[in-house]
Write a structure and sequence with these properties.
The structure holds 3 protein chains of 3 kinds.
Chain A lengths: L1 H21 L3 H21 L3 H26 L12 H26 L13 H15 L1 H23 L7
Chain B lengths: L2 H21 L6 H28 L7 E11 L2 E9 L1 H24 L6 H20 L3 H19 L6 H32 L4 H6 L11 H16 L8 H4 L5 H10 L4 H8 L1 H5 L2 H24 L3 H21 L3 H28 L17 H15 L5 H15 L5 H25 L17 H16 L7 H6 L6 H6 L14 H28 L2 H9 L1 H8 L4 H50 L4 H21 L1
Antiparallel strand pairs in B: 1-2
Chain C lengths: L10 H21 L3 H26 L3 H31 L13
Classes of the chains: A mainly alpha, B mainly alpha, C mainly alpha.
Chain lengths: ~170, ~650, ~110
């Protein structure tokens, strides 16, 4: 059962990720992105990271993609004629290089991690205990990073607002 | 006061004058500029007098004042101090330079009264004095060289002072470039001396003596010859004399100061300064003597045919410098220094006199347009006559004693010969001829002055230097009365010979002078000079048709001499043209075809590769990202495969 | 029934999935024309990394990886916000979202 769920999610993620990259219209890309996020949330669930899955849904599938959709809507672009940048040969070369990276990565992964199965997983705290553990990690061990992230977010709010408020260009 | 004060002052005063006039170079106030310049040199003259009297008060064997201001260069074992040496030789020189210099500065005030840039002129003149003093007082050959180059620079600036006239600017450049050729010789000579002795300090070089006489042509002879080449450049000897006649393009007081009295004698002074070294190189000395004698003859013969008053005096200067080198070559350094001094007096006098004449004639220099100026310019005439008598060697004027000493030594010295004496005698006769011709055509005979020119006597600031120099031209020679004459009048000592004695190596194998021989030679030279002077007087005042007829008859010879033996043309054709052609060839085949090609190739290669690399930096963000991907690919491959 | 145990899901599966998603996102960044889509592709890449963190965290029994995922999410959201704000600013002035147009920003 777990296997079937995984392969289903994998197929969902890969297809929708390809959709993000391949479809011409940005709004469809955004929708495919939502699908991908949901798939990733499913993967998190399969890895027993329930809280993260929830956050993934709320933050990514909810907030971030909504932001994308709104920007696309705001622009009210004409119909895109081409999805990709100019230079077909260059694009193929880029894709080929990335393919090469992928093959090198996968080959080495298969060599290194092929022997780890689900049976020898360490036991983890269940349910709310897991979330508690996470919280103690976040607010005790990594509290400094947490604070930094908070400040960063604050800055980003101010920066994004002021950037978007500007009339654009140098005549702000 | 301390010696260092006077040595400092002798330099500081003209430097200050140079700075004041130099910073004020736009000023047209010739009186102010002239007063500053003259006062500066006069101050120098006072310090020179103070130093000289210090020198005299010292006991004979210790007549040396040295002062080192600071260490100039110190490299390993090689040290050069900014140190200055006042001894018998330089003591007399500084008196001449600053004394004659002051008079000429004074004269210049009147002469430059109509000029556009008097302040600049006086600034250059003061700078010249500074450099000339550096040359003379420098204890080290390197300092001497600094002065040597400095006077060359000032000479260039002053010859080309009226640079808006293209010909005059070219004359300046000619002087400068010709001097550079000589300077190369001087440098080589200095290098060789350094190689021989390991030092450039004059005192230390001479302290390593006595030098063994070189019978064959060795390194000492080579060094001396190289130094002599330097001297031929600065002192206008064959083959580098060509610049001096052209140098007359400058203002006349400049010709008097730089191109007659002081700078051109630098070569004579330098050789005398190093006389123990030169005495060790008899072959070089013989060459010097012959070059000097031939220059004297050669330049005198050109002087006979010229019409430009300053050109005649210029060739006369070359000829007289030839005499000095003849004296040096036969080992009579004393005679050379003696003639240097008397020549400084009477030639400066004559140049200033000619300046006075030119000034009166409204910048006319052609003696065919003068004549009978005697009645318009009495003071100039009288002083000029004194100079004339001095230069043609009439006793008891200054030139007689110095020239006679040279002629006598070239006969008597074992380093001289009868032939050298004979050439000197002929040149003396020619000198008397052309100087009398100059006098006759300028001051005596019939007036050929154009209607619209009204000659007048010059102002007091111009005549005063003439009078002083006139007196010096008379009495200057009495400092070196030969023993044979001195004995007759009751043991009048030869002051100059005695004075220079400790600094000069005696000529080896010099026999006791035979009084009757010396009298005979004196008589011969006076008679020759007198006869040719009389001939010239007779021809150019009474029978002007005779010289015309002679020059008509010997037309090819006359025109050859009149065109200065076409030496300039010869240099132009055989040296300058080939040099230019070689340069052009090198330019076309080495520079353009080879060096340029290589550099162009390198630059275009770099440009092309830069252009290629520029494509990487095209602003395309996705391409930049692709570079990151490539880097990632590379580092992953390295981690996994490596 | 054939033995399917070799198809049992293990750590390597997650990592392979993550590598593929990452590479798809990377290709998107490299070849897409629309700047907004490029930002989306960057989100894809970040998600791929998140999968890796969570997988390692799970298979090693260590919560630290999960914490990193929090941080990544926060920064990803921030990056998206700033990136979109920039795009909005540029679009307002030039009416252009083509990444090649950004070449004009070079010196």
């Amino acid at each position: 059962m777990e296997n079937i769920v995984f392969y289903f999610l994998e197929a969902l993620i890969l297809l929708s990720a390809l959709g993000v990259v391949l479809v011409t219209s940005p709004i469809y890309s955004a929708l495919f992105l939502v699908l991908t996020m949901i798939g990733v949330a499913g993967i998190f669930v399969s890895l027993d990271a329930f809280f993260l899955a929830g956050v993934q849904l709320v933050v990514y599938a909810g907030a971030v993609t909504v932001m994308f959709v709104m920007v696309v809507m705001l622009f009210n672009l004409d119909k895109e004629k081409k999805a990709f940048s100019k230079g077909t040969a260059g694009n193929f070369l880029k894709a080929a290089s990335v393919g090469l990276i992928w093959s090198v990565l996968s080959t080495s992964l298969l060599y290194v991690f092929s022997d780890l199965g689900k049976e020898d997983l360490p036991r983890l705290a269940e349910g709310s205990l897991a979330i508690k553990e996470l919280a103690s990690h976040l607010f005790l061990k990594y509290v400094f990073g947490f604070e930094v992230i908070c400040i960063l977010l604050l800055l980003v709010i101010v920066g994004a607002v002021s950037l978007a408020r500007a009339k654009g260009g140098t005549h702000a | 006061m301390a010696e260092s004060f006077w040595i400092g002052l002798i330099f500081a005063a003209p430097i200050l004058g140079f700075l004041i006039n130099g910073f004020n170079f736009r000023s047209k106030n010739y009186k102010l500029a002239g007063t500053v310049g003259t006062l500066a040199v006069a101050t120098s003259f006072v310090s020179a007098l103070a130093l000289f009297s210090k020198l005299v008060s010292l006991p004979e064997a210790e007549r040396v004042i040295t002062h080192s201001f600071f260490q100039w260069i110190s490299v390993g074992n090689f040290h050069v101090d900014a140190s200055f040496l006042v001894d018998q030789l330089s003591g007399v020189m500084i008196l001449i330079i600053t004394g004659v210099g002051s008079l000429i500065h004074l004269f210049s005030i009147g002469y430059m009264s109509h000029d556009e840039r008097p302040a600049k002129y006086f600034a250059y003149l003061n700078l010249f004095i500074v450099n000339m003093l550096l040359l003379v007082l420098g204890e080290n050959l390197l300092i001497l060289f600094v002065g040597w180059e400095g006077v060359g620079l000032c000479s260039y600036l002053l010859i080309g002072f009226w640079f808006s006239d293209k010909e005059k600017a070219a004359a300046g450049m000619k002087a400068f470039i010709t001097n550079r050729i000589g300077d190369a010789g001087l440098l080589i000579g200095m290098f060789l001396l350094f190689m021989l002795t390991g030092t450039l300090s004059v005192t230390e070089i001479l302290a390593q003596g006595p030098f063994a006489t070189e019978v064959t042509f060795g390194i000492v002879s080579f060094a001396c010859l190289a130094l002599f080449i330097g001297a031929t450049g600065k002192s206008a000897q064959i083959p580098l004399y060509v610049w001096l006649p052209d140098a007359m393009a400058g203002p006349t007081p400049v010709s008097a100061l730089i191109h007659a009295a002081t700078m051109v004698t630098a070569g004579v002074y330098m050789i005398t300064r190093l006389n123990p070294v030169f005495m060790a190189a008899p072959i070089s000395m013989e060459i010097i003597a012959w070059v000097g004698a031939l220059t004297a003859l050669f330049a005198a013969s050109i002087g006979i045919t010229q019409w430009d008053i300053k050109k005649i005096l210029a060739y006369s200067t070359v000829s007289q410098l030839g005499y000095m080198f003849l004296a040096l070559g036969v080992g009579s350094f004393n005679g050379a220094m003696f003639h240097l001094m008397t020549h400084a007096f009477f030639k400066a006098l004559m140049f200033l006199g000619s300046g006075s004449v030119i000034h009166a004639m409204h910048e006319e220099q052609d003696i065919r347009k003068m004549g009978a100026l005697k009645k318009y310019m009495p003071i100039t005439h009288v002083t000029f006559v004194l100079g004339w008598l001095a230069i043609i060697g009439m006793p008891p004027f200054a030139g007689f004693f110095s020239k006679d000493e040279i002629l006598w030594m070239s006969w008597h010295s074992p380093m001289g010969s009868k032939a050298l004496w004979f050439i000197g005698l002929i040149a003396a006769g020619m000198t008397a001829f052309y100087m009398t011709r100059l006098m006759a055509l300028t001051f005596w005979g019939k007036s050929r002055v154009p209607e619209n020119v009204h000659p007048h006597e010059s102002p007091i600031s111009m005549t005063l230097p003439l009078i002083v120099l006139g007196v010096l031209s008379v009495v200057g020679g009495w400092l070196g009365i030969p023993h044979v004459i001195g004995d007759v009048f009751g043991h009048i000592p030869n002051i100059l010979e005695h004075w220079y004695g400790p600094k000069i190596v005696p000529i080896p194998g010099l026999e006791q002078a035979v009084a009757s021989h010396e009298y005979a030679l004196m008589t011969i030279s006076v008679l020759v000079a007198g006869a040719s002077a009389f001939t010239a007087y007779f021809w150019y005042t009474k029978r002007e048709d005779i010289p015309k007829a002679i020059s008509e008859k010997a037309k090819p010879l006359h025109s050859l001499v009149f065109e200065k033996y076409r030496v300039d043309e010869f240099y132009e054709a055989k040296i300058i043209k080939p040099a230019i052609e070689t340069g052009k060839g090198l330019w076309a085949f080495v520079d353009v075809a080879f060096i340029d090609k290589i550099s162009y190739w390198i630059t275009s290669y770099i440009k092309d590769s830069g252009g290629g690399l520029r494509l990487l930096q095209n602003g395309n963000l996705q391409q930049y990202a692709f570079y990151i991907v490539l880097g990632l690919l590379g580092s992953i491959s390295y981690l996994i495969l490596g | 029934m054939p033995d399917l145990s070799q198809y049992d899901v293990g750590l390597s599966h997650y990592l392979l999935l993550s590598a593929m998603v990452f590479c798809i996102g990377l290709v998107g960044v490299l070849v897409r024309k629309n700047t907004i889509v490029i930002l989306m592709c960057i989100e894809l890449m970040l998600n791929a990394v998140n999968i890796t963190f969570v997988a390692f965290s799970r298979y090693q029994g260590n919560n630290d990886g999960s914490i990193i995922v929090f941080f990544v999410m926060a920064i990803a959201a921030a990056e998206a916000a700033v990136g979109l704000a920039l795009i909005v600013a540029i679009f307002k002035r030039f009416k252009e979202v083509n990444i090649r147009f950004f070449e004009h920003l070079k010196g």
